[in-house]
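Hey L., structure's done. Input below.
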Amino acid sequence: MIARRRRRDEDALAGTALPALWSNGTFEHEVIAPLAPLPGELVIDKNTSSAFNSTGIEVLLRNMDVEALVVAGMATDMCVETAARDAADRGFDVIVVEDATASFFERHHYAALSGFARVFGQVWSSERVLAELEQGAPTPG
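Output:
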């Protein structure tokens, strides 16, 4: 973890005996079964708010000729928004999935989505994302 996050974690441990962040190998860090990666799917372990700042994700995406990203996760006004804005600033077309993101406060969720949609990319429902993916998916054979 970066120094700021280590300090935050140490402060949380001192005050509550619980870490602020869950490290690799802890139960809280594990991927839940319904979201487990399929064989061959790429898993990137980030330790900053944006995956672009603590991983090689940009190089991986460029090498795979990815031009557009669909972003979902927790928390809309923190990690999701930061990663989505970073992706847009790097030239990716970005869609944030409104009903596949959440925050600790509803007003923060909607404020993050509104700010992102105004300048950086688009905000879609999961229904729209799935419909678009289905339309654009190549026909087997």
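The chain has two domains: 1-30, 38-136. The mean pLDDT is 87.

-- N.
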